[in-house]
Design a protein that fits this description.
By secondary structure, this protein is α+β, with helices and mostly antiparallel strands. The strands form 3 sheets. Strands 5, 6, 7 and 8 form a 4-stranded antiparallel sheet that branches. The protein has a two-stranded antiparallel sheet with strand order 1-3. Strand 6 and strand 7 form a beta hairpin. The chain is rod-shaped and about 205 Å long.
Length: 337
């Protein structure tokens, strides 16, 4: 309870007391009983009641979250040029009154959800897009009264600015801007651009009408039932196409992997064959070199020796046909005639 209300409450009790004393005086006078000091008490109470009522009517306390416009019968135009800010103020009793405005931020929501927005029921904005599709937009406008222009706001809109200005302008701007885009742009690539364009236009309109635009929030976008079904079917088809493409890509990778494995096996076989051939070639070259070395070292005597050396060990004598030049006697054997 502020001081103005307190004073007016006390004044009310003073008036009640004054009326009670008047009734008592009337009763005593009708019975020809002495009034005594009741007249003095009545005068004191009426003076106190008048004083408290006057003072209570002239003292105004503006809350910290409020602004006030003083409506007066004395000045030109009927309104004081300057608003009253938070605190205790004095106005001319019975000649002036205050009209209070909230200084805090205010929220106006238009929503399809019942009891969520400022208007009960479905209060979303119905829009026809550039490509002829019907969409429904939920949005919120955050704004505040401009403290430096509250007097002009009162002169222009009184207290109808929320319905007549905020609601009307917001719905109109949203419809106008959204109709410039296709439905695919609104839900994907151009949503942020559209939201910014709406915000810029509302900033200008609110400023021209003595309000401060704090923020615009594009809460939700809904489609008509037919379009929602079409979008769902399209998404299903795209998902199926993506799945098919994934399967094809997987098969390609499996085939490529099989080709790589086969190529690796073939390369391994080629390498093995080359290795084996080179090994055989090296062996052949070594054998040939050995043969050449052996051939170079052979003499007739060595051949005879090797021949004799391979004969049976029990042969003691070798007969050589006549006309041969050499006979090789074995050790410990006799030479036949």
């Amino acid at each position: 309870m502020n001081i103005s209300s307190l004073l007016q409450g006390i004044a009310s009790f003073a008036w009640i007391g004054f009326i009670g004393i008047l009734i008592t005086i009337s009763v005593r006078a009708s019975r020809k009983q002495p009034i005594g000091g009741l007249s003095t008490a009545a005068i004191v109470l009426v003076v106190a009641a008048l004083l408290l009522t006057t003072v209570g009517a002239g003292i105004v306390f503006i809350e910290p979250d409020e602004l006030a416009v003083v409506v007066t019968v004395l000045g030109e135009g009927g309104i004081r040029p300057d608003p009253l800010l938070s605190g205790l103020h004095w106005i001319i009793p019975f000649a002036e009154r205050v009209e209070r405005y909230p200084k805090v931020n205010q929220n106006y929501t238009m929503s399809s959800t019942p009891d969520e927005g400022a208007v009960s029921g479905d209060d979303s904005i119905q829009v026809r897009t550039k490509d002829g599709q019907q969409i429904f937009i939920d949005a919120s406008v955050l704004y505040a009264v401009d403290p430096s222009k509250v007097v002009q706001l009162y002169s222009t809109w009184r207290f109808d600015y929320e319905d007549q200005l905020v609601r009307t302008q917001a719905r109109g701007v949203i419809r106008e801007v959204a109709s410039q885009y296709g439905v695919e742009e609104i839900v994907s690539t151009k949503r942020a651009e559209m939201e910014q364009l709406i915000t810029d236009q509302l900033l200008k309109i609110f400023s021209e009408n003595n309000l401060i635009m704090r923020d615009f929030v594009l809460r939700n976008i809904r489609f008509s039932e037919e379009y929602a079904i079409a979008v769902e079917q399209k998404q299903i088809a795209e998902q199926q196409a993506q799945q098919a493409a994934f399967v094809v890509e997987q098969k390609k990778q499996e085939a490529e992997q099989a080709r790589e494995i086969a190529r690796g096996q073939a390369d391994a076989q080629v390498i093995a064959a080359k290795g084996e051939a080179e090994s055989l070639l090296i062996q052949a070259q070594a054998q040939a070199e050995a043969n050449r070395t052996i051939a170079a070292s052979l003499t007739p005597e060595l051949i005879q020796y090797q021949y004799v050396n391979t004969l049976a060990p029990n042969v003691q004598t070798i007969f050589i046909p006549s006309g041969q030049q050499f006979i090789l006697p074995l050790p410990g054997s006799a030479v036949g005639q």
